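Re: the request from the purification team.
They wanted to know what the chain is likely to look like in 3D before they choose a buffer screen. I agreed to run a prediction and write the result into the notebook, where they can find it.
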Amino acid sequence: MGQSGQGPADASASAAGLTHPPTPSLGREGEFPERTCILSREHGTRDGLIRLALGPDGNVLPDLRAKAGGRGAWIAVDRATLETAIAKGKLKGALARAFKTGDFAIPADLPQRIADGLQRAALDRLGLEARAGALLTGSEKIAEAARRGQVHLLIHAADAAEDGNRKLDQALRVGADEEGSGRQGMVIPVDRTTLSMALGRENVVHIALTAPASAARVSDAFSRWCGFIGC
């Protein structure tokens, strides 16, 4: 995916900088605070929605970390729905109600900025887990760890060979004592070249997360991105 620029309103919490969302703080009644999507009216915790912020220059920009100051609004729709809402003026109207002003501009590439930011966030999360020592690459190392039951999340690049995927998927099922279950690794919309660049390693085709918490963080980041782009 292409890299998009960002406005000054969102320097610290832009689409380029998403990391795994922090666990929401508990409210007075012991429940996670919820946000409401301005388009679908669906409710959800903030880590499951995307915040749009109104910058001082009047542009609406993605605030994926939900850290930017000023007025903000939340959406919980995929890219296709967002693009339709922009084209029909529904997003403009919903934001005007949320911001209590119509004095703002929606960049034409807003959906792409969100998609790019979520992709970068997912790849950045892989890099963080690699530096923490919770990530394995290389088919042989992954297969060995999988058969021992040490793999909590298995990832395949988009251009990985089906035969290689099948062998590692089988090792995953053996190690988890789930033979016959059909359990498989996660095929992500990123090729081996992009994965290799993200991790600073050569020919990264398969990735295994060996710590439960690391697996959860990576799974959340990729699920959020894939949910938005509809893959």
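For the purification team: The first helix runs from residue 79 to 87.
Please add any questions underneath this entry.
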